[in-house]
Design a protein that fits this description.
It is a single chain. By secondary structure, the protein is mainly alpha-helical. It contains 15 helices and three strands.
């Protein structure tokens, strides 16, 4: 059978002819609207995927993974993101940044350890630490590259590792932003978004920050000034690490306090989980 479809967009006309030994003379004429009704969604999806691929090639010099493609397709379809939005997001996220000695806040050991804890629920074994640390320093891997490699590991594919990983990310986001454990409905919704739609922790945090509950939490709290947030960070550093905060630490933890409503205790807990604290104790 031979199928030929001609679509003339300017005149909104489409002609479809089907030829077969027993149907040599049959011709079917469809209106342009009818033909495009079935074809347009496919063309639109293809255009969106092409835009995402262009953004990844331009910003990261690589193709998107399957989960990344699903994530950005969802953002385009539901939030009306454009290719420019995808490029801006890729360029601004720290987890996509390559290692550089100029970025003092980028510690390969901490990146690997955090990825293992989130994805596999354990500390890295010596071989894993050595391999991924080398990939970050010598091959320019980002935190997302490490996480994607762990998600493709046999350990992650076996059992309930995927669900457990998603639940850890969701619980941390709920505690940081809403100050509570996730309810069953929220846990199920965000778990499905992570596993099936390519969401990551940043997406969960963004959704929680935009929630009605978050707005109510913020209204019930006094806004801290920049100076007050800086004092909290300084006290935490002096009490845990016995030193003044570096510029990156001050910036990152002030952002947590001002944007995510972190308490001083949460800053202290984060510093106690740092490589520097472990090396001193």
């Amino acid at each position: 059978m031979r199928l030929t479809t001609i679509i003339i967009l300017a005149g909104i006309t489409a002609t479809t002819s089907v030829a077969a030994p027993v149907m040599a003379q049959e011709r079917t004429h469809l209106s342009g609207a009818a033909a495009l009704k079935g074809i347009a969604p496919l063309l639109y999806d293809h255009l969106e995927e092409a835009a995402i691929q262009r953004a990844f090639r331009s910003v990261l010099n690589r193709e998107p993974t399957g989960s990344e493609l699903r994530r950005y397709l969802t953002l385009m379809e539901e939030n009306n993101w454009t290719e420019a939005d995808v490029r801006r997001d890729l360029g601004s996220r720290t987890d996509y940044q390559r290692y550089s000695t100029n970025r003092r806040g980028m510690r390969p050991d901490a990146i690997v350890r955090r990825a293992y804890q989130d994805i596999l629920g354990r500390d890295p074994d010596p071989e894993g630490m050595r391999t991924y640390r080398s990939n970050i320093i010598d091959r320019g891997w980002s935190e997302q590259d490490v996480r994607e490699a762990l998600r493709n590991s046999p350990e992650y594919a076996s059992g309930g590792a995927r669900t457990a990983s998603a639940d850890r990310i969701i619980r941390r986001a709920y505690q940081d932003i809403l100050g509570r454990e996730p309810d069953p409905g929220g846990l199920e919704t965000y778990r499905r978004n992570i596993i099936e739609r390519g969401w990551d922790e940043q997406d969960v945090r963004t959704a929680l920050r935009r929630s009605q509950e978050r707005r109510e939490v913020v209204r019930g709290q006094r806004n801290l000034s920049d100076a007050e947030a800086a004092d909290i960070v300084r006290r935490a550093y002096l009490s845990v690490l016995d030193r003044e905060p570096d510029a990156n630490g001050m910036r990152d933890y002030k952002a947590r306090i001002l944007n995510d409503r972190w308490t001083e205790q949460q800053v202290v807990n984060a510093l106690r989980n740092s490589d520097e604290y472990r090396s001193k104790h």
